[in-house]
Amino acid sequence: ETILLELIKSLPPSPIRAAARQLLVKIVDDINETLALLDLALEDADGAPAAEASVLNLRARQRQWAGDFVGAIGDAQAAAKHAAAAGSTAELAVALGREAHARVFAGEPVPHELLERAVALERGLDGPIPIGESPTRVRGVCALWDDDLETASHLLASVDRQAQARSESWRAIVLNTLAEVELRRGHTAEALSAVEEATEIADYWGVVHAEAAVLPTTALVRGTIGDVDEARHAAERALELMRPVGYDVIVRSAARALGFLE
Q: How confident is the model at residue 59 (pLDDT cuts 50, 70, 90)?
């Protein structure tokens, strides 16, 4: 973090400085701080539509974590416009996937047409999109919410293999979602294995919000197998970590897990 701060201080306003701020956002745990950093990054990226799209896509993600789904949808739509202007297919795919994801979080039905377009764009790229930005991952999550467990399992297992091959930290989040799929399918042993591996990966990378994101599902899995004390500890730990820093989505998940345990 210190190195990034020194780099940002040394750079003039530019897309390069915007990219450095984005890297910092990914390791900072306070949502309001990340949003402030991204506002500055957007100023740095002014006039470079591909860079603006990238910043807006990340800001959409942070707004979604914060529970600001309307803001996330707006940022994703703006990112799509900038990406189209820049001819950046990758950023356009990410923007469409982000909008679809935020709409579902906002309580809307899964926008299948939007999501399919995002996945099609992703599949047409020469290189991979990072797993955290992948529309295919979003489609797998939405399939889980649609109770299409076979599709969710197939897509997320595919994304997990890619994450494993690239040693991506976001594999923890993919495994976390796979654990939910397995739990819904009644495969408790597989669900437990997935959350344990997700916890190990999140702990290794040492980013607090990644560690906390795994805890609500850990609570559900542990509660299902009868390990109620450990389940309650996991959910309460997620609340302790995330309430002060504004990760509303994780807080809500932890609260639901505690409700399940009562």
A: very high
Question: Residue 22: is it exposed, middle or buried by C-beta count within 10 angstroms (0-12/13-18/19+)?
Answer: buried
Q: pLDDT per residue over 218-249, tens digit each?
A: 999 999 999 999 999 999 999 999 999 999 99
Composition of the chain by helix, strand, coil, percent to 5: 80, 0, 20
**What SS3 class is residue 140?**
helix
What is the CB-side half-sphere exposure of residue 144 using CA atoms within 13 A? 24
Q: Which amino acid is at 97?
A: G
Q: Could you tell me the pTM of the whole model?
A: 0.94
CA angle 162, 131, 67 (to 5 degrees): 150
H or E stretch covering 87: none
Q: What is the pLDDT of residues 89-120, one digit of tens each?
A: 999 999 999 999 999 999 999 999 999 999 99
Q: What Rg do the C-alpha atoms of the chain give, in angstroms?
A: 18
DSSP annotation string for 67-115: T-HHHHHHHHHHHHHHHHHHT-HHHHHHHHHHHHHHHHHTTPPP-HHHH
Q: Are 254 and 225 in contact (CB under 8 A)?
A: no
What distance separates the 2 farthest-apart alpha carbons in the chain? 56
Q: Is 204 helix (H, G, I), strand (E, B) or coil?
A: helix
Kindly state the DSSP code that residue 131 receives in the 8-state scheme.
Answer: G
Report the amino acid identity of residue 89.
T
